[in-house]
Design a protein that fits this description.
The complex is a heterodimer of chains A (about 210) and B (about 270).
Chain A (H helix, E strand, L loop, with lengths): L3 E5 L6 H10 L3 E5 L2 H4 L4 E4 L5 H10 L3 H10 L4 E4 L1 H4 L2 E4 L5 E2 L4 E7 L10 E9 L14 E6 L1 E5 L5 E7 L1 E9 L2 E4 L7 H12 L4
Parallel strand pairs in A: 1-2, 1-3, 3-4, 4-13, 5-7
Antiparallel strand pairs in A: 5-6, 7-10, 8-9, 8-11, 11-12, 12-13
Chain B lengths: L4 E9 L2 E6 L3 E6 L3 H6 L7 E5 L21 H11 L4 E4 L5 H9 L4 E4 L1 H5 L2 H10 L4 E10 L2 E6 L3 E2 L4 H11 L3 E6 L11 H10 L4 E4 L5 H8 L5 E4 L9 H11 L18
Parallel strand pairs in B: 1-4, 1-12, 4-5, 5-6, 6-7, 7-10, 10-11, 11-12
Antiparallel strand pairs in B: 1-2, 2-3, 7-8, 8-9
Helix pairs in contact in B: 6-7, 8-9
Classes of the chains: A alpha/beta (about 210), B alpha/beta (about 270).
Amino acid sequence: MRPALGIVDYGSGNFGSVWNAGLRLGLSQVAIRGPQDVKRCSHIVLPGVGAFGAAMDRLATSELDRLVIDEARAGRRPILGICVGMQILADLGCEFGSHPGLGLITGTVERIQVPSTMPLPHMGWNSVEMQGDSPLFDGIDGEPALYFVHSYHLVPTDPAVIAATATYGHPIVAAVSQGSLHGVQFHPEKSQEHGLQLLHNFVTLRV
Amino acid sequence: MLKKRLIPVLLLRNGVLVQSRGFKRYQLLGNPSAAVERLSSWASDELIYLDISSSPTYDLNRDDLNHPEFSNIEDIIRLIASKCFMPLTFGGGIRSIDHVETRLRCGADKVALNTAALDDPKLVTECARRFGSQCVVVSIDAKRTEDGWQVFRGGRTAVEQDPVSWATRVQELGAGEILLNSIDQDGSKRGFDLPLISAVSEAVSIPVIGMGGAGEWDHLVQVLATDASAVAVANMLHHSENSVYSAKEHLVAKGCNVRTPLPLSTQPRNL
């Protein structure tokens, strides 16, 4: 079956960029605004930029939070969270107060601890070290540089879900994989050929 | 490890891409979209698109060409964003928070504020609060004086500010990055104003992008040897084949901490 990429449309700033990346890959795409849209797609991307709490609020206002949780639990379709879209998969976010997340990956989202000479947000092309052999990185060799923009990072309780790390002062979780649920802290839609390759790999995943 | 960046800059003047010399003379290059695909090669790390129009009209004045015509900046940004799989900064003519929002909504990842930041410094803070520091670039045009440098407004009027203290101030106001251009070196091909770039990048902790004066690839190496996080190039990248790739290869060969480009044969490829 030809993959159809569903992109959760809850007012996230990078929705358009992810959509453009899907067009570049020649994918058929669906903007997910409700349960009927999910039926038309084989893979789901949860984009995200901005603050954790604001993203959760928007997702709840669009009544899409329940939908993402149900889909993740059912495991029928691979899901990829991008940036804040990955962070909100966790239990709890600590940006501007404590906010509950979707609770799909056990862990919290915390401010990156860096020496005062290193600026936050962590922004730019950072090399990424793969941990294990996540199929997300098929065909991407060595330590590719990918594009990051964030001040908070996901700290999963179970290190076994970590698929890649980046070093900015300290190690940062760059990618997670837990069954059919995946997340990347960097922006594949802004990471040129490696980013497009990763999105291509994602839509070829089978559950 | 965080890499240093090579950033092509496109200058748009009333709907036409131009080259600039000393902020005074402009040579026409043509259609605003044609160069985007060329410069969006996998070797670029980011793209900066500056609208230096003297009036808000966008007309290529070439109805004979089979190119799409653009009458507004929104359509131009949307088109660039659809081809740009890397961060896109858009600057020029931005005077209000609404202008910022429009440009981000059309697909820009960051906006560059220059005149607006000088006229209304609060705007920098407002943008940072609303959209995050990461998308606020403050662009500074500086010119040498007898004992240092002076900031210029609109490239023409001297302002009672020196670039080092102005950069420090906009960092406090919430700017996430500084695009530093030298009016003296702009279009000169004589190399960058390295003392200026060093002075500003040592004074602030946010990334500084050095611009103005590239005439050979070694000039870019010199900028990346300072504390600057990135080097921006405009004129030099036009009128030659695979120029961004050649520049990047040179930086890699000289040991700069930059992203290694894929072999030319593989880019940009269809997956």
